[in-house]
């Protein structure tokens, strides 16, 4: 019979790369783990690993079980964590996944009053889910996904919480700084600085440059907002960011936000949750507080 401990072994051996390292992580002797592996394969009637010298490679059956382990074990771990919290009189932990680089600054402004209103709930932000948020929600690795690009999936709910405008940010001394709005061809001679995201997920490309068949002179990626805007302020390039974030930095750096196109680019931030979690009061309270935050950027009008 397949048990949870078997899935833990399969996941840990794959993570660690060897029985020796996995045994140490699982607090077992190598002989005990080897016996467990042999017994598991006997029970299943098929090999889980193919042995290549001292290394192990998952067979097709093993790959299937690894996928099962990656889906099921996080749910067990979450259930145990929540039961422990309930036993200690805590409400739980709200795990937020970020699929949006500049949204982190926005999130800080939501989290602060939320923690004050829900003192028995902890908040954990997981930025490693910036590019795999849907899977993280389905896998119970996170409870809330912050994203500007929701995907309709059965079992998930996405609620818009914040309207904003995507703008081009240039240095105050940049020749474009006095323009009422920017056209795509004006970026053909510019160095465009973006976050390390595929171009097909960058609005400045998909909604502005690509439709006009324009590419910037150079595309440079920078991971942190502070360094990106320091580069822009020093005249090393231009960047596309939410207006609220650009204006926040423009308060203390020589930066000018400019509309992208005559009509601009309107965007929204969404919070994604599992439909099965609709009854969790502190999770729904977080969504509600994000939607009614009175400091948000005014609704965008073209």
From TrEMBL:
Gene Ontology biological process terms in this record: methionine biosynthetic process
GO molecular function annotation: DNA-binding transcription factor activity; transcription cis-regulatory region binding
CC annotations in GO: cytoplasm
InterPro entries, alphabetized: LysR_HTH_N, LysR_subst-bd, MetR_PBP2, WH-like_DNA-bd_sf, WH_DNA-bd_sf
Keywords for this protein: Activator, Amino-acid biosynthesis, Cytoplasm, DNA-binding, Methionine biosynthesis, Repressor, Transcription, Transcription regulation
Chief location bin: cytoplasm
Membrane-spanning parts: none
CDD domains in UniProt: PBP2_MetR
Family matches, as SUPFAM superfamilies: Periplasmic binding protein-like II, Winged helix' DNA-binding domain
Pfam families recorded: HTH_1, LysR_substrate
Compartments, record wording: Cytoplasm
Residues covered by the HTH lysR-type domain: 1-59
Family recorded in the similarity comment: Belongs to the LysR transcriptional regulatory family.
Protein name, as recorded: HTH-type transcriptional regulator MetR
Organism this protein belongs to: Paraburkholderia fungorum
Taxonomic classification: Bacteria, Pseudomonadati, Pseudomonadota, Betaproteobacteria, Burkholderiales
